[in-house]
From TrEMBL:
SUPFAM superfamilies named among the record's database cross-references: Epsilon subunit of F1F0-ATP synthase N-terminal domain
The protein's name in its UniProt record: ATP synthase epsilon chain
Functional note: Produces ATP from ADP in the presence of a proton gradient across the membrane.
An annotated GO cellular component: endomembrane system
Regions crossing the membrane: none
Lineage: Bacteria, Fusobacteriati, Fusobacteriota, Fusobacteriia, Fusobacteriales
GO molecular function, one term: ATP binding
InterPro entries assigned: ATP_synth_F1_dsu/esu, ATP_synth_F1_dsu/esu_N, ATPsynth_dsu/esu_N
Natural source organism: Haliovirga abyssi
Family: Belongs to the ATPase epsilon chain family.
Membrane topology, as annotated: Peripheral membrane protein
Quaternary organization: F-type ATPases have 2 components, CF(1) - the catalytic core - and CF(0) - the membrane proton channel. CF(1) has five subunits: alpha(3), beta(3), gamma(1), delta(1), epsilon(1). CF(0) has three main subunits: a, b and c.
Keyword Cell membrane set for record: yes
Length: 133
């Protein structure tokens, strides 16, 4: 199977840089699979799980928002947040979830509600991904 270069970058650091067989990630349009020689593309990422396949091995990641760019040279993911599934602290994510749910009940401005709902969705997704390991 042909491979392609994948880079995952957050504002803090390069999370991943390697040749891969396949990438499956969540976009704002739905889940998307990328193979070598994919047509050029730029799309927005949604909060969700990303799977990287190399041979028979599969690595799972949490990704929160950002952009995916497919070019001839590589696939680039610029994510607000990204982490390998086995690095997720499930207990911390559950505590975040509880705090955010309580905060959400007290908010009354649309902007604050949207930001808190986004953070809550991140915590719930981390829990779901982390518990699948």
């Amino acid at each position: 199977m042909a491979t392609f270069k994948l880079e995952i970058i957050t504002p803090q650091k390069v999370i991943y840089s390697n040749d891969v067989d396949m990438l499956i990630t969540r976009t704002t349009e739905g889940d998307m699979g990328i193979l070598a020689n994919h047509a050029p593309l730029v799309t927005e990422l949604a909060i969700g799980e990303m799977k990287i396949k190399i041979g028979k091995d599969e690595e799972k990641y949490f990704v929160s928002s950002g952009f995916l760019e497919v070019s001839k040279e590589k696939v680039l993911i610029l994510a607000d947040k990204a982490m390998k599934a086995d690095e997720i602290d499930i207990e911390k994510a559950k505590k975040e979830k509880e705090v955010l749910e309580a905060k959400l009940k007290k908010l009354n401005e649309d902007r604050d509600i949207a930001a808190t709902e986004h953070s809550l969705k991140e915590a719930l997704t981390k829990i779901k991904i982390g518990e699948t390991l």
